[in-house]
Amino acid sequence: MRFVHTADNHLDECFAGAGFPPHFGNRRRQSLRDVLAGILARAQAWPADAVLIAGDLFEHARVSRDTYSFLYDAFARTAPIPIFVAPGNHDPYVADSIYAKEPWPENVFIFSRPEWTACPLDTVPVTIHGFAFDGPDISRNPFGTLRIPQDGRIHIAVGHGSEANHRPEGQKEYAPFRAADAAVEGLAYLALGHFHNPIAIEGDFATCMHYSGAPEGHRFKDEGPRYHLEVEVDRAGVQVRRVPSARVHYSTHAIDCSAFTNTQQAIEAIRALPREEAVKHIVRVRLTGACPPEVSAGLAAIRDACAPDFEFLKIEDETTALEDYAELARGSTSLSAFLRRINAEIADAPADSRALLTRAREAGLAAYRGAALAIRGADEG
Amino acid sequence: MRFLSLKLDGYGKFVGREIALQPGLQIVLGPNEQGKSTLCRFIGHMLYGQKRSETARLYEDEHELRKPWQPGAPYGGRIVYEIDRGERFEVARNFSKRDESVSVFSLTHGEEVTARFERQRNREPLFAEAHLGLTKAVFLHTATISYLSLDGLGDEDALGQIREKLLSLADSGDEEHSAETALAFLDERIRAIGRPGVHSKRPLPTLRARLAELDDELRAVRALQAELAESERERLDLAAGVEAFRLRRHELQAAMKDVDRAARARQLAEAERLTERLGKATKHCFALSAARDFPLEKSPDVQRLDNRVATARAQLERTEAELDDLAGQMDAESGRAGHEGLEDLAELDEGWEARLADSENRLAIARKRYEDAEASLAAAQSRAEEAKRQLDALPDFSTVAGDPMEWLNQMASTFELKLRTRDAERKERARLEAEVKKWEESVALPSAVFTDDSLVSEMRARDDDVRLAEQRREQALTRLEMLRATLGEHQADLPGHRMLALLLAAIALGCLFASYYRDDPGLTFPGLIAGLGVVYFFGKVMTNSAGARRARIKIGDVQAELASIEAGHASGRGELDALLGKAQVDTVREMEALFERFSEERVNLDTVRAVYRDQAERAREEEEHVAALFASLRETFAALGETLRGEEEVSEAAMRTVSRYQQYRDAKRRYAENRDQAKQREEEFARLTEEVERLREEDAQCCLAARRLLRDAGFADEKKHASANSAFRAYRIRFAHVRQRRGRVDVLSEKREALTRRRELERADLEKQDRELKKCLANVGVDSIEGWRALETQAREYKETWAERTKLQEQIDALLQGLEIEALRARVAADGAPAGPVGLTEEAIEEELARVASELEGCEKREHALKLRMTERLAGARSLNEIEEERAALEARARALEIEVEAAGYAASLIEAIARDKHAQIAPRLAALASAYLKEITAGAYDELGISRDLRLTIRIPETAQLNEDPERRLSTGTVDQIYLALRLAMVQSLGETGETIPMLLDDPFSNYDDERLAHALTLLMRLGERAQIVLFTCRDDVGAAARKLGAPIIDL
Questions:
Q1: Is the CB of B892 less than 8 angstroms away from the CB of A19?
Q2: Are the Cβ atoms of B903 and A363 closer than 8 angstroms?
Q3: A108-110 and B88-94 as β-strands: parallel, antiparallel, unpaired?
């Protein structure tokens, strides 16, 4: 038995707040479609006996008819390979979901109930078990309730939820479970979705358990390459192989500008960032350190110079002015008095207002010197 | 601090040059391009280095500029200085970037002390700042007074420029940037971004406006999505309907197949039956084949010929009978004419009848008009009598001269005008009375205060005294502060000099005693030297003591003067305040204004009173005039039948009288008209009577002539008629009867001739038709029309049978629809037994199928239309994702801009507050010092320089002895330069925080000085040099000469 395991495609996701410029979201959404189409094409070429999608295939509240049409065509082209979809918290099986109200190709099986449902395959002696979120929060947690019959078939399960020991800090729990509870006897493989990083869950149990992770990143926190899983199951055991699927890699880099004396050095540093040739890159660069005003004032030029090398380049200016504010504060002039006062305020200020005071200090010093100071937000390129 | 020596290893044009510097004022003299500015920069760089950033190794542009001109020379040097507490330091620097170094060596303690000083992040040790208490910027811009600093001064805005330089020095330590320029910079920055809530094209308002548009778009798209969701539900319902209809159609199509099988079986049976009927028809045709070629098409022709023969025969018979009847009628008519006889009556002209009728009509019309004139005459006479009665009943207005209406209206208008005039005069009198009262009330309070007109001038004099006292107090306070400063200086030096005098006296005495007792003349000389020192310091003690004493005395004098001024000021102020309080005003200026108003109001009151008296007299005269006029009117109206009870009734009485006059005038006009009409009617009646008589005579003559003519024409019955007209009508009737009978006999004769011609033609036609019929019968072998008809019947039967056979064949073909009957038999056999009753007829199924197809088509169309509508609604609308992503991106930018505005605003508020405090703090000391320096430079010509809290400059102008805020027009360029030098010198004294004396580097500041003020300025610098080292760089020999006279050392470059 060979099957492809993927999850968390999040088609039609909204990228508001991701720091992208307007209209770039459309490119990202198209890339997510391309990635899914690539996975399905590879499943045909391999060939796989089945495709398992462990939830969050799309964004329920935002999915368009065009996306539904795309899914229909993509799934239909994959026939006769059966596709099993276990809806997750972002694409729950609810009455107005396209899962429920739209027709799907015959090779697609969508789990529709919040309890385990078995679906035996005709071509191979394998049974697929799955469940669906019936709302943004599942009404009952099915993990640990799966009963595997002793029928001589291979049993594989697919579902969406948060494994307690691997949940990222601060992330909300959905259908929480412990791996030991989910690894019921007779279950050969549990295909999981929800966490965007690929995770192999290991423990004192026989069931092979994997989060495939999102096949392509969605935010800067989803750094590096992304995968879908190709799994081979037989009586001897389970073999899992991670196959790179992302067409775009996210990465974040900090570049210390303290030693720079001109923008060319910053541009060369950005151009020299490590990146694979085969994929596109969405890169966030944090410029840090104290740098001369020529560098900090030339951010727009730096961005314009480097942007063609990347799918998208976001430059965050965290540099500090090449000033010794404590030193400048020593003196008898009004400028020194101003810096003494605002230095003290910055030192005592809570974190949320420190940025404002720091900027006020930079503006005040530039004003005293009549020096140019770029206006942040005036032109984002 | 003072500099002791400079050693330039390699710096600009200097290589291996060493310069020793003295305490106090010294002049570095040399022509241009000899390196004066280079020396100046060397000192700055030795103390503070060449880096332009405190945090990184970034160098000033001068780093390259000041590199040694001589190749290979080391780039650096040494400087030795001494701080006020006596410790000496040597600073050695290498400016070369490759092996840059700096070391500070304490010559006093003989040790390297570089590590003792804090270092900046650019690795620069802060020894100079620690020793001077000044940052690099402040030292370079404050202590270094360069030629360029003074360049450009002396124009009209010189003091403004000096103020800006002062502000800049106080605010940022350089000469270019002050808190004011910083605030302007921040304000411009905020304006460039745009203030929140203000509509403009700046980035922030533009972004906010775009965000508002996006919010609207977002709401619209959400509403659209809700609408589309509803449409989607509707579409799904339609899709379910389509599916149901398709299912039903499938069922009906299956039923239709069963029906088709049954129909096929019925089709075969029908085909068999029709084939049998076809065989029978074929046999019958064979039996009638003899008549197959009979020309049935000729039958209508034969029948038509037969009919024509019969018709021609009948017509001939009818014409002959008609001829017989006509002959009978002619005979009868001829008989009746002979019985009555034909009269010989002549025909008369028809004009006579018209003539008689016309004469009769004219007579009748004249009679009618005669009767009407008679009635009209009676009516006119009656109306004239009625008008006479009405005229007699009205008053007689004929006694009034002219137009009574105009006269009455004029009288009423005049009276009304007089009334209005009287009322207006009364109203004006009341208004003036109120105004008099108002003015009387207005002057009531000032009258109590201003009992004497000289009061205000006395108060103005007292106020001037108070102001003068305040001014004198300010001057005394300034002098007191300066005297206290002088006293402090004297007292500060006194203990040291006294101790030194005592110490030297003890040494001198010791030496002299030792010399005397030990007989050692070698000790005498030191004793004498010490004695001289004693004399010197004792002299200093005495001078300082005397100076202190003089200062104390002056302070006492000034304090006494101050007390006297205060006392006088308090007394004058009290009296002034009491008078101001009584007048309820705050200032003398207000008091003066009050008095001016009071004086004006008094004059106004007198004027108004005089006007009021005149007005009261005018009002009384008008009242008397109106009363006299009303009495006269009352009598006049009484004569015309009206009684006046009050002034208000005059207009109405006049209107009533006018109305009555109009009635009188109408009645008089009616009487005259009716009387004239009656006369006209009488004349008309007489004329009509004559005309009737004339017409009657003419009518009688015409009748006689007509009767004579009738008799002449042979109408004997003329006598039987009463009038000529009726006789003429009887004649006309008789003549018409004779003419009718003659015409009837002529018609019958013509008709008989026509019938005879027609009978001959009809006989010929009958013979021709008979010949043609016989010819046709012979063609088919028969000789009678009956034989023809028998043969024709057989031929028709053959044709009908043949046609039936053809029809049967067509029915079979249509039934089988191209199939052979054998094939149909095979298909029916293949269908097998029928499926049983279908339940619905074929028509019912077809009808149901048509209905289902129609419903299905309708549903599909609606679903398609719904899809189209949804697509159309979606067209052009952006997705939620796109809008929210753009909104998030713009919101982030707007937030960043708001932070920029907020930060700039906060920085501005801090800068403004701090600068205000700073300026207020330094202003008094700066003013005192600068005033003293300026007084000395200008030899007392300008002795007071005012500096306000915002560092605005005022100077007391000697000619006016007043502080002038706009003195540029009165100051020469040189004076402005001197003001600036005084202020800069004062700034140096004010900015040092540690108390360390700050050496000053002056670069040719005397370009606009005359000789006298140059001498005074150098004297001042000499005096300041006693406390602080001053190095004056100049290219002017006169400056060098003047300095030499004062004993200042000269360093020639």
A1: yes
A2: yes
A3: unpaired
How much of chain A, in percent, has pLDDT values that exceed 90? 64
**pTM of the entire predicted model:** 0.50
SS3 content of chain B, % helix, strand, coil (to 5): 75, 5, 20
Secondary structure of residue B1027 in the 3-state scheme:
coil
B7 sits in which H/E element: strand B2-11
Burial class (CB in 10 A: 0-12, 13-18, 19+), A348: exposed
> Which residues fall within 8 angstroms of residue A292, CB to CB, at 6 or more apart?
A260, A261, A322, B53, B56, B58
A292: closest chain B residue by CA:
B56
A26 CB within 8 Å of a chain B CB:
yes
CA proximity to A39, closest of A302, A185, A229: A229
One-letter identity of residue A372? A
Angle formed by the axes of helices A334-348 and B158-171, to 10°? Answer: 40
DSSP string for A211-274:
E---SS--STTSBB--EEEEEEEETTEEEEEEEE--SEEEEEEEEE-TT--SHHHHHHHHHTS-
CB-defined contacts A:B, below 8 A: 194
CA-CA distance, B928 to B935, in Å (whole number)? 11
Q: Which residues pair with B28 in a beta bridge?
A: B1033, B1051
| Residue spans of alpha helices (H) in A103-196 | 179-182
- Name the residue type at position A155: H
Among A63, A136, A46, A145, CA closest to A102: A63
Tell me if A323 and B906 make a contact (CB, 8 A cut-off): no
Helix, coil or strand: residue B845: helix
Contacts of B192 in chain A (CB under 8 A): 375
Q: What is the pLDDT of residue B745?
A: 64
Closest CA to B432 of B292, B602, B610: B610
Please report the ipTM that was assigned to this predicted complex.
Answer: 0.85
Q: In chain B, which residues have pLDDT < 50? A: 148-150, 152-155, 340-342
What is the phi/psi pair of residue A97, to 5°? -80, 150
Beta bridge partners of A312: A282
Write down the H helix ranges in B288-347. Answer: 299-340
Binary contact (B203, A330; C-beta < 8 A): no
